[in-house]
Amino acid sequence: MTKASTSDIVSPSTGTLGKAIALVELVALADRPLRFTDILDRAGQPRGTLHRQLCHLVEEGLLEMNADHCYEPGLRLLKLASRAWGRSDLRRLAAPHLQALHDATGETIHLGMLRDTEIIYLDKVESRQAVRMASQIGRASPAYCTGVGKAALAALPQPRLDALLDLTEIRPFTQHTIVERQALEAEIAAIRRAGHAFDREEHEAGIRCVAAAIFDQERTFIGGVSVTGPAYRVGEEALRNWAPLVRAAANAVMEEIAARLGPKA
Amino acid sequence: MTKASTSDIVSPSTGTLGKAIALVELVALADRPLRFTDILDRAGQPRGTLHRQLCHLVEEGLLEMNADHCYEPGLRLLKLASRAWGRSDLRRLAAPHLQALHDATGETIHLGMLRDTEIIYLDKVESRQAVRMASQIGRASPAYCTGVGKAALAALPQPRLDALLDLTEIRPFTQHTIVERQALEAEIAAIRRAGHAFDREEHEAGIRCVAAAIFDQERTFIGGVSVTGPAYRVGEEALRNWAPLVRAAANAVMEEIAARLGPKA
DNA sequence: AAATTAGTTCCACTATCTGGAACTTACTTT
DNA sequence: AAAGTAAGTTCCAGATAGTGGAACTAATTT
C-alpha cells in the first residue's frame, strides 16, 4: 500500500469524510446559492443521508444556511485557510522576491503551487489596487493553460506528467488554448528547454504571462512565479524580456530555501 | 429538536466529521508544525484511529505532510475559502462603503462577522500596503476585546449574549482588556446606548478602534465595521469623532442590503 | 382547497470507524 | 557498530455511526 503522498493522484476512498467535503466543494464551486434539492440532484445521494450530512457540515461551520434556505460556504473555512496561508513557508520566503519582481516589471506577480491538476495561487502583488485585493489568492486554475501551470507540468518527471494529463479534462477557454495533447506535449518540451513558460491568452482572452518553476533541493517542483499583464500593454517582446527576470526571481527563492535549510540543521 | 441555525452554540455531535476537522483545526492553529506524536498527545485518540484519520485528511488535501513528517494545513482549504470569500454577499455590498470610510479617515477599515465567540474578519482596506495584504482576512479574534466583537455582543439579544459569554474564556491580552464579567456587561450596556463600540488597546497594545454593528431587516446582527489605528496617531478624541462616520457606514451597508432585497422579490 | 413540490424525521440495516496490540522503520545512545 | 528506544504504520474483531427507503410535515403553486 502506498503511503498517501501529497503528490499522488488517487480517487479518494476516504469514506465519510470524502463525501462530506465533496459537498462543501459542491456548494463552494457552484455559481449560485444552492437549495437542498439542487444539492440532492447533483450529489447523487438519498435524501435522508444528504440531509444529515448537510446538518453536520452546518454544525461544524463549514457550511451555512441563509435565510432563504440556501447553503453557502461557511466562515470557518476562512479561518482555517487564513492560518494555512499565514504559515506557508514558501509564501513567506518568496514574498520579498515577488515584490522585487513587481518593482522591476510593474505588472502583477503571482505565486502558485500545483495541487492535482490545478494551480492554486498562494500570493500575488498587484500594480495598484486593480480590482479587489486578495481576490485571486486561493483561486484554482487548470495547469495546462496557465503560465505557472505549464511551468509546473514541464517540471514534473515524465510518468507523473503523463498520469496528470490523463486525469485532466482539456477544454478551450479561449481560442488560443492548447487543446491537442500532442501540441501540449510539444509546448512542455519547449518549456523544458527554455526554462520558462508563456501563457499567450490561453486561459483568459487578453491576458499574457511568463512563468518559471521553483524547485527544492531534490529538484522536485514546489511552486512557480509569474508576471501577468493585459495583452494591449504586454507584447510578445515584453514577455521574452521578462523571462530572465522571472527565472532569476525563481532562483532567488530557491536560494532562500537552501539558505534556510543550511543553518537550520 | 432545534434545527441547527448558524448562530446556535452547541457542542458538536457531528461524529466522524467533527473529529476530522477538529484535527485540521488543531494543525492549523498550532504555532509550529506538528509531527504525528505531537498530534497524538493533543488529540487524545488512539494511535491507529488517529493515523487513519490523518491519512484521510491528507488524501483529501485538507492537510499535507511535508518532508520532515510534519503535518500542515492543506492547499485545498485555500481553494475552498477563496470561493467562500468571493461569494459573500455582505462583503460585496459592504466593499464600497469600507473604501469610503477609509477615504474619510485614512486609517485601516475592517469588516467582521461573529462566529460562536469569535469575530472573523471578512475584509479590510489598508492605509498603504502596511504589512502584508490579506494577512488579516479570515483571522479570528475573540469578541469580548475587539471593537467589532463588542459591537456584536451588544447587538445580541440578552439570552444569546449570556450564553455566549458563558462559553467565552476571558483572559487579559493587554493591561486594558476587560476581564471582569460585570465590567464587560456594563461596557456592553454603554455600547447599546451609544450605538458604537470602542477598543482602547484591549486586544493589542497600541491599537485603538471604533466599530458599529450592521443589522439585517429583522434587526439581527450580521456583521460589523471598524476603523483601527495606532494609539500614537489615534487619540480618544479621534475615536469619538469617527464614531458617527462608522455608524453612517454601517447604516449605508444596511440600506444596501434592504435595497437589494426590495427589487429582488 | 387540492395538488405538487420542498424539506425533515424515523429506524432497521450495515458499512465504516474504532482502538488495542503487534509490527516496522528511523533515530539515539553506549 | 550494535543494541535500545522512540516514532510511525498495519491489522482485525467488535462497536459505532452512517445509510437510505419511506412516511411525515411545511411551503408553494394551480
Q: CA-to-CA gap between the ends of chain A?
A: 32 Å
Query: What is the total domain count of chain A?
Result: 2
Could you give me the name of the CATH homologous superfamily of the largest domain in chain A? GAF domain
Assembly context of the chains: homodimer
Radius of gyration of chain A: 20 Å
Poorly predicted spans of chain A? 1-12, 129-133
Q: Could you report the average pLDDT of chain A, rounded to the nearest whole number? A: 87
Return the CATH class of the largest domain in chain A. Answer: Alpha Beta
- Largest contact between chains: A-B, 61 and 61 residues
Strand content of chain A: 15-25%
CATH architecture of the largest domain in chain A: 2-Layer Sandwich
Strand order of the largest sheet of chain A: 6-5-4-9-8-7
Secondary-structure element series of chain A: HEHHEEHHEEEHHHEEEH
Helix segment count of chain A?
9
Q: Please tally the β strands of chain A and state the result.
A: 9
Q: Which overall shape of chain A is indicated by the principal axes computed on the Cα atoms?
A: globular
Largest sheet of chain A: 6 strands, antiparallel
Share of helical residues of chain A: 40-55%
Protein name (chains A, B): DNA-binding IclR family transcriptional regulator
Keywords (chains A, B): DNA-binding, Transcription, Transcription regulation
GO biological process, one term (chains A, B): negative regulation of DNA-templated transcription
Domain IclR-ED (chains A, B): 76-259
